[in-house]
Specification:
Blueprint lengths: L1 H8 L10 H28 L8 H8 L3 H26 L4 H21 L3 H15 L3 H11 L5 H30 L3 H20 L12 H5 L16 H9 L3 H32 L3 H28 L4 H20 L6 H28 L6 H30 L1 H20 L9
Length: 439
């Protein structure tokens, strides 16, 4: 049984090479197909992962969960997702993304249905933790698709475009969850996203393709004449798990630096995504719908920032650390600004939320691309999972400490703590200022 499952997930073999005219005609079509499938997949994963935070207070009030209890749910989920992102990333480098994404999407949809049906705190804690683990299957296969269909010199732009799926999905997650809960009760904040993910799973099973070679096309390096210099002859050789981990991951000092920086960047990213709705409710009396829009503002502004900075990173020779460092300074200023925002100026809070989103998603995107720049496309799932794992460990810390600090010392104390971690992230990113793609 186990062997049959393993064989089902194996990547498809190369098919006979098409003739030159077909290659010229079909390559742009399949590239767009890979992009739109990766975009749709990751946006949908966000809809069934980030739908808890916008309704955690509304749901908590109904079920008598306090901020520490809901914070523990988010922390456990983040821990499971961080571990899952690395472990599942290792597996994804050896799997067909079509089947891998399909399985992950169905599992997370079923867990959303189970969560909405439960009414017990510990049951919710277990189910949402399992959802975090299943969600770890999402990023890596999408990265694999993008790495095989887009070459080194265009990664900044195309990965920036793809990473907008984080923001589109995150924005939709907040709006769908908030409006569903308002109209039909808090369980619908999980039923509705689960139904969307189920439909997306079957669509992706139909449309996703693995590598160019699996559909009779040449590898992207040949098509674009864009080879990493040290891999000109070996760029398509599949790597063993041992090679991936012991050659490309653990000995890679810059990858470790990127991962540790990501730990602190994720605190800055998720502080207002996870707790902004509660902050606005407790300090400004914001409505449930407006709390949903606060998440959307962060995500939509982030999409614009990633697109602009992804393009810029290509123009400056792939220096992702350079653009990341300069974008963290406004994040620090925005969090300081929230501390001093007058109680009756809700619009100013929303503007500062937008500034945080516009700036903080650049290092989120850039560190993911940097993990590929520093390794190999055959190790991209593992590398991205490794860097992402540290990011979600940072989110665990944020979910466990920010509600406690805010309850005991007030929201301003919690925001000052985020300012401190944002400063640490900026310093660490500065050490990657001149890092460029390998070769």
């Amino acid at each position: 049984m186990f062997a049959a499952i393993v064989n089902w997930f194996k990547p498809p073999p190369p098919t006979p090479r098409r003739d030159p005219e077909e290659i010229k005609r079909l390559y742009p079509y399949f590239r767009f197909q890979a992009f739109h499938c990766a975009f749709l997949a990751y946006a949908t994963f966000y809809i069934v992962r980030n739908n808890f935070a916008p309704v955690e207070k509304f749901m908590g009030d109904k079920l008598h969960y306090d901020a520490v209890m809901t914070g523990s749910i988010m922390a456990a989920t983040s821990l499971a997702y961080g571990i899952g992102k690395f472990v599942m990333g290792c597996l994804s480098d050896r799997c067909d993304p079509r089947k891998y994404v399909f399985a992950a999407m169905l599992i997370t949809a079923m867990l959303n249905f189970a969560f909405s049906a439960a009414r017990d705190y510990h049951t919710h804690l277990v189910i949402w933790t399992l959802n975090g683990l299943a969600q770890g299957m999402g990023y890596a296969p999408c990265s694999r698709m993008m790495a095989h269909w887009f070459s080194v010199r265009e990664r900044g732009l195309w990965f920036g475009l793809w990473n907008m799926s984080h923001n589109v999905g995150g924005a939709l997650a907040g709006l769908i969850a908030a409006y569903s809960a308002k109209q039909f009760g808090w369980p619908s904040a999980f039923y509705v996203p689960g139904a969307i993910a189920t439909l997306a799973a079957f669509y992706l099973l139909w449309k996703v393709r693995d590598t160019p070679q699996s559909v009779g096309l040449p590898p992207i390096e040949e098509y674009k004449n864009d080879y990493p210099p040290e891999e000109h002859e070996s760029h398509e050789r599949e790597l063993t798990m041992r090679e991936i981990v012991m050659k490309y991951i653990f000995p890679n000092k810059m990858l470790w630096l990127a991962a540790i920086a990501n730990f602190f960047v994720y605190i800055a990213r998720y502080a207002m995504v996870d707790w902004g709705p509660r902050y606005l409710s407790e300090t400004k009396g914001a409505s449930l719908e407006l709390r949903g829009w606060s998440t959307a503002v962060i995500e939509l502004a982030g999409a614009l920032g990633m697109l602009l900075m992804g393009w810029l990173s290509d123009r400056v020779g792939g220096r992702r650390g350079f653009v990341s460092t300069i974008m963290m300074a406004p994040v620090i200023l925005a969090y300081i600004g929230i501390v001093f925002t007058p109680p009756d100026k809700l619009w100013l809070d929303m503007a500062l939320f937008g500034l945080i989103g516009f700036c903080v998603y650049t290092p989120i995107m850039a560190l993911g691309v940097m993990s590929l720049d520093l390794t190999s496309k055959k190790a991209v799932g593992t590398a991205a999972g490794f860097v992402g794992m540290f990011g979600y460990f940072g989110r665990v810390l944020e979910n466990q400490t920010l509600p406690v600090i805010s309850q005991h010392y007030g929201w301003n104390a919690g925001l000052i703590a985020v300012v401190a971690t944002s400063f640490i992230a900026t310093v660490l990113l500065a050490f990657t200022w001149n890092v460029r793609p390998r070769g």
